[in-house]
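Subgroup meeting minutes
Present: P.N., E.W., G.H.
Scribe: E.W.

1. P.N. recapped why we're keeping a running log of single-chain structure predictions: easier to compare across weeks, and new members can see raw inputs and outputs side by side.
2. G.H. added today's entry (106 aa).
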Amino acid sequence: MAVTVAEDPQAYDCGELPPDGGPGWIIDGEVYPTNPKHQVPDELWDMVRIWRACRPRPGRICGMAAGIIPTATHLPEAGGVMDQAAIMMDALDVMDRAWWGLQKEE
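Output recorded in log:
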């Protein structure tokens, strides 16, 4: 049976074992016999949720424009960009760069 290629996020939307009965998921050439989604710690999923909440929705303008242009995202903490923890903003930037790197590969 074929290995589930894990490019599609829905490929992980199942239990521990691959739904096609194959040997597992392949990510960057490595085969994972059990669902890699279940190996990600809860605190990392929390960070992904924060990152997704802070990203602009498709087709929306994002940014601070003194109320002229509505912002499409939220920041993790109250206040503006300068009120955020630098480590959190850096982490969001790292995640954005990874996301855009994946988009360029498609």
